[in-house]
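Spend some time on this chain, tokens included, and walk me through the fold:

. . .
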Amino acid sequence: MDEQVLAAMARWPDVPAVRGWLSLSARGQWRLHPRGRGWGVPDEEPGEAITSPQILAFIGRNYLSDDAGRWFFQNGPQRVYVRLDGAPWILGMDADAQGRPQLRTHTGRDYGPVAHWWLDSGGRLYARSAQGAGLVSDRDLARVVEALRTAEGRPLDDWLERPDPAGIAVRLTGDAGTDRAGAATPLGLLADGALEATLGFVRRP
């Protein structure tokens, strides 16, 4: 968190939190809802994309969660709760210094190691790590699935065609099939309606 934000919080400790003003799309785009009607009202605003690099960087540096799994942007002394259309982190695929696959968040941070993967009935792939829950962006989904291998080093094609409810152990590997993340990680099926409880976050705080 920025030093000036911490200073503002100390100076004005009792500023009420707000909701309905900020959302994060399933593709990792921050959206502003100018009238504060982003959710919880009959006439929800679609919001306007935030494109300023300076503002995006500021939000990213001061984006946190509370103990209840509610994510927020600390805007100076005021907490601005965020509507999450996908998950707290939207994940893309990049490469590390050795050219191996590396997950990164919509804010540009490295993500992982992944403790658990989840696949829902709509084909969306979620991850859980110490940073919190992440959703693989649809733009990078095919690349991430391609980089995942079974514990025996096989592609996931056969399992994806007939997913076993018991799940499977997977690794994120490099082009040469080398182990990227150490021990194999569970990949399970996410029950409908169980997203927030399973992954520990609140979509509309």
